[in-house]
Design brief:
By secondary structure, the chain is α/β, with parallel strands linked by helices. It folds into two domains: 3-63 and 159-340, 3-Layer(aba) Sandwich (QueA-like); 67-145, Beta Barrel (Thrombin, subunit H), CATH 2.40.10.240. The protein has helices at residues 46-49, 138-145, 186-195, 233-244, 254-263, 303-312, 314-326; strands at residues 27-31, 38-42, 55-59, 61-63, 67-72, 78-88, 91-97, 107-110, 115-122, 128-134, 171-174, 198-204, 227-231, 249-252, 273-277, 292-296, 337-340. Strands 2-1-17-16-14-3-12-13-15 form a nine-stranded mixed beta sheet. A six-stranded antiparallel β-barrel has the order 5-6-7-10-9-8. Helix 6 crosses helix 7. The two termini are 24 Å apart.
Length: 341
């Protein structure tokens, strides 16, 4: 398939720049993938769309303040790091600019010398492996000197870091939020659990590559970035029980979907697993694990738009997006949601 098959025109003013005051007040577009029928609701209405026994699979990753603004130790030249992936204790893969200032052995300082870094290696794509030096606990130092790396299409400052975290986030490691989960409140989750909806947790640490554009005209030639994931026995038991009883397994977000489809057997059952996934889902893919998907609206020509097109049909998705644009839905990370069934 061609990249241009996944293009749509989005007015810039529909890109949400900040979260709504209340998470579950966002709008919700319900899409029936069998018929293409759409219904316009609010996210809090999802409690009426889920049945007792439905299983929601959520990604409990937590965004770290992965953006670091610093100086070259010897010349004082400015540098920007974005932490991508931890390789070893105090050794991280980073995206940086300007890259020409980051030869092997070069040292940088951040936050009034609270954190220092040395370039160890130049790796594929121009990223670097760096070793960090600090006193105390790395996460605490990072929390003091780092900045949450909002997507490039968000230009307004985020005053409350927690609004770029899901209410169920637990494990540090992401450079971007699993944004479909941003719509849930603690109260809504309690209501769903009281109704009998099951929750299964997994972890996928979202890399900055999630924003990397597809540059190949033929989408099959695109190479996905890999991301760390973990799914444990408790979550697998909940999912497999739902499968056994013919109840729906619904992924909250494309990240949860990608983990489930990475580990699922042909019959849709899952086993505990940990590792890296670079699964690329686009039209023609046969889904094994999920029966529904809660997701945000995705960028034109993005791999995430291709994933939802694989699940719901490209024509259905583009028609639904056209309708959402006409109705002034808010798009992308802080925007509105879809529920595809």
């Amino acid at each position: 398939m061609q990249l241009k098959d996944f293009y749509y025109d989005l007015p810039k003013e529909l890109i949400a720049q900040s979260p709504l005051q209340k998470r579950d007040m966002s709008r919700l577009l319900l899409l029936d993938r069998a018929t293409g029928k759409t219904t316009h609701l609010h996210f809090y209405d999802i409690k009426n769309l889920l049945n007792p026994g439905d299983c929601l699979v959520i990604n409990n990753t937590r965004v770290i303040p992965a953006r670091l603004l610093g100086l070259r130790e010897d010349t004082g030249g400015k540098i920007e790091f974005v932490l991508l992936k931890k390789h070893d204790k105090d050794v991280w893969e980073v995206l940086l600019k300007p890259g020409k200032r980051a030869k092997v052995g070069t040292r940088f300082v951040f936050g009034d010398n609270l954190l220092k870094a040395e370039i160890l290696k130049i790796i594929d794509g121009g990223n670097r492996l760096v070793r960090f030096y600090y006193s105390g606990v790395f996460e605490e130092v990072l929390d003091r000197v780092g900045i949450v790396p909002l997507p490039p299409y968000i230009t307004e400052k985020l005053n409350d870091r927690e609004r770029y975290q899901t209410v169920y986030s637990k494990y540090n490691g992401s450079a971007a939020a699993p944004t479909a989960g941003l719509h849930f409140t603690g109260e809504l989750i309690d209501e769903l659990k009281n109704k009998g909806v099951k929750f299964a947790e997994l972890t996928l640490h979202v890399g900055i590559g999630t924003f990397r554009p597809v540059k190949t005209e033929t989408i099959e030639e695109h190479k996905m970035h890999s991301e760390y994931f973990k799914i444990g026995k408790e979550a697998c038991d909940i999912i497999n029980e739902a499968k056994k009883e013919n109840r729906r397994v619904i992924a909250v977000g494309t990240t949860s979907c990608r983990v489930l489809e990475s580990v699922a057997a042909e019959d849709g059952t899952v086993k505990p697993a940990e590792g890296e996934t670079d699964i690329f889902i686009y039209p023609g893919y046969r889904f094994k694990a999920i029966d529904g998907l809660i997701t945000n609206f995705h960028l034109p020509e993005s791999t995430l738009l291709m994933l939802v097109s694989a699940f719901a049909g490209r024509e259905n998705i583009l028609a639904a997006y056209k309708e959402a644009i006409e109705m002034k839905y808010r798009f992308f990370s802080f925007g509105d949601a879809m529920f595809i069934i």
